[in-house]
Amino acid sequence: MPEITVGTFLQEKSEDLKLELITGVEGLPRLIKVSEINRPGLAFTGYMEHFPAERIQIIGLSEYSYLSSLAPEILTETLERILSYPSLPCVILAREFDPLPEMLRLHQKFKIPLLRTGMKPSPLAGELIFYLEDKMAASTSLHGVLVSVYGLGVLLIGNAGIGKSECAMELVKRGHMLVADDVVEVRQRSGGILIGQGEEIVRHHMEVRGLGIIDVRSLFGIGFILDQSKIELVIRLEDWDANREYERVGLEEHYTNILDVKVPEVILPVRPGRNLAVLVEIASLNQRLKNRGHYTAQQLNQRLIQIMSQR
């Protein structure tokens, strides 16, 4: 699993989460290896069974009040029990609590960053988990075009020159939104959700043969672009093969694997006279129906079987 340093985390999220580094600057190279967080209240009382030291530790009102009530020697023993773990990345004080003097001394001793924020623990934990899951998610890059069609994230793939960008351009003209062209960066979030986005430097641009680079945002406006989208349907464009049997009824469901996640796939053969943009729209609407449990081909097949069985 990917990992990040506490220094990188602080650099990227200090403004959003109103984080400040109190002490422990020597520990900024420490690694954050998991996306979960922990509130160490139970560990402060002495129960260390299954203590998740590799997680970011958040000290809220109950933990801070408990530590403040301890005698000096007990406080030192309690904090050392936690801070002595080599895998501990950092500790965050919520609600803008002032660090106890013994906290400052021991964080400096063990070289563990002590951060502070004005946020409450629950919203802070939610923001941290969302950020860390995104940073540590499995990822890959795919050659294709990602568009949002009727709110459904559709990844167009196929050989170079098959017409992916031209199809996406027609979809944008018809009111849909471009997410990424040519290279789609894909991350897997928890629950098997795939999120796609474009490379930062070429985001919202398209390459169209004969025209060159097109700035979709400048041409069509902010309402025709998205920074990222789920990938909920893959449409593979391929040259028409007269010797191949293509899907004509739709009874069989086809899937492709992206980062070990099964994604519905539709194969659209390309030949002159076929309006690919319209076909992509219909495929997207049909997939939305399937997501809601409505399978047109199967329902029609069942009705036909019932009619034939009554004869």
If helices are DSSP runs of H or I spanning 4 or more residues, what is the number of helices?
Answer: 10
Fraction in beta strands: 25-35%
Kindly provide the radius of gyration, computed on alpha-carbon positions and rounded to a whole number of angstroms.
27 Å
Oligomer: single chain
**What gap, in angstroms, lies between the N and C termini?**
60 Å
Reported by name, the CATH topology of the largest domain is Rossmann fold
Superfamily (CATH H level) name of the largest domain: P-loop containing nucleotide triphosphate hydrolases
Low-confidence stretches: none
Question: Which class of secondary structure composition applies to the elements?
Answer: alpha/beta
Summed up, the domain count is: 2
**What integer is the average pLDDT?**
94
Name the helix and strand elements from N-terminus to C-terminus, one letter apiece: EHEEEHEHHEHEHEEHEEEEHEEEEHH
Helix content: 25-40%
Strand order of the largest sheet: 14-11-10-8-9-15-17-16
Second-tier CATH architecture of the largest domain:
3-Layer(aba) Sandwich
Number of distinct beta strands: 17
CATH top level of the largest domain?
Alpha Beta
Instruction: Note the main sheet.
Output: 8 strands, mixed
What is the 3D shape?
elongated
